[in-house]
Amino acid sequence: DDSINRERAQRVGCERPPPTAMALNGRTRPSLGWTGLLSSSGTMGFGAVRRIATTTACAKRHTSCLLPRWSSSGNAAPTTASASTLTGLLAALSLAPRPCSLRASAVGAPARGLCAQSADPSSLRVPGVKRELETLMGSALEAAFPDQRQEPIVVQTTNPKFDCDYQCNNAMPLFARVKGEDGAPSNPRAVAEAIVASIPANDLVEEAAVAGPGFINLRLRDSFLEGRAATLFQPDLSVESWAPQAPCRRAVVDFSSPNVAKEMHVGHLRSTIIGDTLCRCLEFSGVDVKRLNHVGDWGTQFGMLIQHMEEEGVAFDAAVEDLQVLYKASKVRFDEDPEFKQRAQRAVVRLQGGDEESRERWGKICDASRREFTKIYDALGVTIEERGESFYQPYLEGLVGELLESGVAQMSDGAACVFVEGQDAPLIVRKSDGGYGYATTDLAALRQRLSEEGADWIVYLTDSGQAQHFRGVFAAARKCGWVPEEGTGGYPRVDHVGFGLVLGEDGKRLRTRSGDVVRLSDLLGEAVSRCKAQLVERGNDFGGDEEALDRVARKIGYSAIKYADLKQNKQSNYEFSFDRMLDLKGNTAVYLQYAHARVCSILAKAEASGARGGGEGGEIRVTCGAERALLAAICQFPEAVEDCVADLAPNRLCEYLYGLTSKFTDFYGECQVVGSEEQASRVRMCEATLEVMRKCFFLLGMEPLDRI
Questions:
Q1: What 3-state DSSP class applies to 516?
Q2: CA torsion 399→400→401→407, rounded to 10°?
Q3: Torsion angle in degrees (nearest 10) through CA of 55, 59, 60, 64
Q4: SS3 (DSSP) at 457
Q5: What is the pLDDT of residue 618?
Q6: What are phi and psi of 189, to 5 degrees?
Q7: Start-to-end CA span in the chain (Å)
């Protein structure tokens, strides 16, 4: 509707009006592909549009869409939409309207959901098993209880005694809703039986059985598992096609964030590797991710450091370890010498005022730190773009002015403050002395990322101690109208991923014997040294090739540190132990690396025997329980990635990888591969396992070893 478009464009301040036909909130998404909504005549019935548009009872992360005029007002709507209209609609949805006012970011961003991805013919996606089950059970629920809209509750089952793969747990909550109505079932079990009776014919579920008070146990068909695993080897498909659909179009992930003039320490470990894994999972899902390193490169401390270095006659391109010593010395002088403090404050004024010499000195200090940061990132395989606090300084004065002019901020005791309901203290955006703090910088960064970077989702990774700070920043952003109210599930979305501390085996913060924080470079070096000694002790044969030994030790050492951290609940503290993380048994990266090498060894033997190599490979066929369990685990990969992204929790992917590896170990122990009658099928199962394992390794930032 042109009038709606014009009205919305005026409100937002966009050059071209955003589409109004559909506004995707991005929290969830359609269970059906777009092509499935088109009829044989190439049209899409309005019922299909309305079904997507008004869905609130589809699975947890399916897209809820709204038709502002068609579904809520009494206005007439077209009965069909042509394929060309749909194409135009999808193209419109890919637009990224840029806001031009303080409140603009909250409007229009949700319209850039994941539909454009679905419309891309080159983006071939194999839906996750859980997704398909949710769609199937949603149909059953709608048929059995058409007046009771409810999301399908489908969960994996891990207890082997149930002899099923998933459970649908809708019966009991549904019974609570219909109890007492005329003709309602007499108990939850009767509700479950009605749902099972309404499951449409399908190629997915072999058996749906009611258990206990009303659980519905779902066992997948062996033929479905065989066919799904086979898609890994079909033309134009691969493990990439198993990626879950993107939760949004563009995300900014703010992680690592070390301070200039200080070395990276163990405290930066969690932010760096958790952030990298979340970026990899988002990118795998099709999200355009901007990885930002919000380094601490601005503030009073730099005037203090520059003044001290000038007076001591130290070169400004000193190594970062020297800079850290100099920084500590300058801090002591700043606290104890009033005259030095005044000189340092004048140095800050010169730096922030743009003095050319001060900026040159500051630049050299930043460059020295940047070189050291890069060494760590290269070692860990982390890609990140530096975007320090200094970048946002030009935005601060204008931002505070707008906040005051709009009434979002108020003056209190000489300071500009944003008072937010539910927050004990206001967010101070300008101090009484005219200076700006972290809150102002973070608020400016959030706005810049929404308005200029076009972010639909911004994720911050810091220790849990900063949770209160980010609650205040996000609350202020909501008061500004930049992001939707908390709990609405709308986009643009902001999240703080807080994580616990890395502790020593004594249960205290991990520190050196002298009480200093452990340098991250030292931690990585120690891991490699221990791995190297362990490999030699175990008698691994490298034929005197020291470079090969070093290469393997690095891969195992770095992956051991990463996995030991990533497998933890992110919010929990954990004890750092080299002995535990380098154990060959249990849930460790070393166990996973050896299992990966074992799969490669089996496939190498198969190739040497002529059972593998070239051609289309064997057809997968289930002949025993160990094979079936392995295939079922393989097919759960997409939902593991989806859960990792939805919960911002890499441990969900670690749990999956360890479970898959355990299932392969069982399979390897029970099933002969090379030389068996089922050789062709089992070789294919090994290849499928390898494909998924390697993708998991990649998403977790670990380099797999084909041979140890």
A1: coil
A2: 110
A3: -20
A4: strand
A5: 75
A6: -65, -40
A7: 64
Q: Which two tokens stand for residue 410?
A: 């108020």
Distance CA 68, CA 53 (A): 9
Q: Strands, E, within 379-426: which ranges? A: 385-386, 410-412, 415-418
Helix (H) or strand (E) holding 288: strand 288-293
- d(Cα 678, Cα 676) in Å, to the nearest integer? 5
Report pLDDT for 613. 53
How far is 182 from 205, CA to CA, in rounded Å? 32
Mapped onto helix, strand or coil, the DSSP state of residue 39 is coil
Tokens of 114: 């994941």
| pLDDT tens readout for residues 460-491 | 999 999 999 999 999 999 999 999 998 888 89
Angstrom distance (rounded) from CA 387 to CA 295: 7
Amino acid at 634: I
Q: Which long-range contacts (CB under 8 A, 24 or more apart) does 430-433 make?
A: 430/400
Q: How many CB atoms lie within 10 A of CB 181?
A: 10
User: 211 φ, ψ to 5°?
Assistant: -130, 145
Per-residue pLDDT of 116-164, as tens digits, reads 333 343 457 899 999 999 999 999 999 999 999 889 999 999 887 888 9
The pLDDT tens digits for 637-676 are 999 999 999 999 999 999 999 999 999 999 999 999 999 9
In whole angstroms, give the CA distance from residue 281 to residue 638: 11
Structure tokens at 479: 């008061």
- Among residues 342, 312, 339, the alpha carbon closest in space to that of 327 is found at 312
Which residue carries 């992917």 as its tokens? Answer: 653
Distance between CA atoms of residues 532 and 556, nearest Å: 9
Judging by beta carbons within 10 Å of its beta carbon (0-12, 13-18, 19+), is residue 146 exposed, middle or buried? exposed
Residue 166, H or E segment: strand 166-168
Strand, coil or helix: what is 417? strand
This prediction has a pTM of: 0.81
